[in-house]
């Protein structure tokens, strides 16, 4: 019974982590414009994401523009896109494997063969997905903090942590927890 509860809890955490990974990949709020001067009146807010830049004017009008050329992107952004797309695909595969593991685990059986190999595959995939999400999100967060405190970076180019980074950190934690639960069920 406890193993079944752990399976279901891991499945729920993995599902929420999968949705968070998909959301963080699509969200344009990775870097948000920072206002560090004494100017209280803010007319524009700039969002920079993996796929597009957006400008919100007075909170009323939002204009978003996809990046024109893949070849013109900086190499870290290309790598972050690839890692997040790989993580999203792996999260979906891990979630499907977790569903199969819960479905095809024999009821009432005890011992080493009591847990389906889908559970181990889902656990390993969730752990790998959490790590893949954590790398670009933490790297971006670190570069934002480094540039924010760098006196050589002009004030208009300073950015703050966006909502997508927080979603990414949360989903990475959920995916790692789901992977740990599934791997614990296997052991």
TrEMBL record:
Gene3D superfamilies from the UniProt entry: 1.20.140.150
InterPro entries: Claudin, Claudin_CS, PMP22/EMP/MP20/Claudin
GO cellular component terms attached to this protein's record: bicellular tight junction; plasma membrane
Keywords: Cell junction, Cell membrane, Membrane, Tight junction, Transmembrane, Transmembrane helix
Annotated compartments: Cell junction, Tight junction; Cell membrane
Function per UniProt: Claudins function as major constituents of the tight junction complexes that regulate the permeability of epithelia.
Record-stated family: Belongs to the claudin family.
Protein name from the UniProt record: Claudin
């Amino acid at each position: 019974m406890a193993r079944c509860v752990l399976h279901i809890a891991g499945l729920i955490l993995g599902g929420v982590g999968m949705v968070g990974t998909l959301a963080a990949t699509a969200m344009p709020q990775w870097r948000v414009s920072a206002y560090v001067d004494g100017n209280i009146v803010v007319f524009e807010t700039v969002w920079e994401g993996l796929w597009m830049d957006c400008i919100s004017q007075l909170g009323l009008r939002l204009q978003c523009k996809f990046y024109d050329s893949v070849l013109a992107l900086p190499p870290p952004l290309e790598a972050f896109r690839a890692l997040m797309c790989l993580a999203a695909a792996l999260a979906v595969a891990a979630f499907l494997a977790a569903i199969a593991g819960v479905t095809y685990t024999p009821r009432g059986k005890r011992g080493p063969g009591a847990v389906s190999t889908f559970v181990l595959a889902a656990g390993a995939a969730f752990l790998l997905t959490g790590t893949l999400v954590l790398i670009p999100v933490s790297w971006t967060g670190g570069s934002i903090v480094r540039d924010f405190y760098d006196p050589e970076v002009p004030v208009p180019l300073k950015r703050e942590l966006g909502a997508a980074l927080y979603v990414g950190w949360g989903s990475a934690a959920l995916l790692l927890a789901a992977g740990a639960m599934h791997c614990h069920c296997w052991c």
